[in-house]
Model the fold of this input.
Amino acid sequence: MATVESRIVINAPVERVYAIARDIERFPDFMDDVVEVEILEQTPERQVSRWVAGIEEFNRTLEWTEEDFWNDEDRRCDFAMLEGDFTSYRGTWVFEPDEEGTLVTLVVEYEYNVPLIGALIKKLLHRKVQQNCDNMLAAINAEAEQA
Done:
């Protein structure tokens, strides 16, 4: 299973950054790669959502349904794909107070098994997943610092 990690320090209070990240239905408003997010089920700690993300290099979209477990006390989210285009997709968001505001760490573990997929395509996909994580954090940064 491949893993990517992205970190950013955002010059905004942890409460604001966490609230922006938790409001996933707004992601398409300020994240270029996210086409659609729909919450299918929701309780205070758990939500199930359907995602559509665009991959321009592949001229296609990826779709999946994921389950998120939000821990407001620890400011953490653990998520995992229930079904979708990936073979496996899961990870964590962690939001920690920092001298300059909020340190956000996003870790994604994924597997994408397609028969006859070459090493070059796997490297491109890995780079794209890393880029997507970096872009998500940059977009949350811009949204938080703008507020």
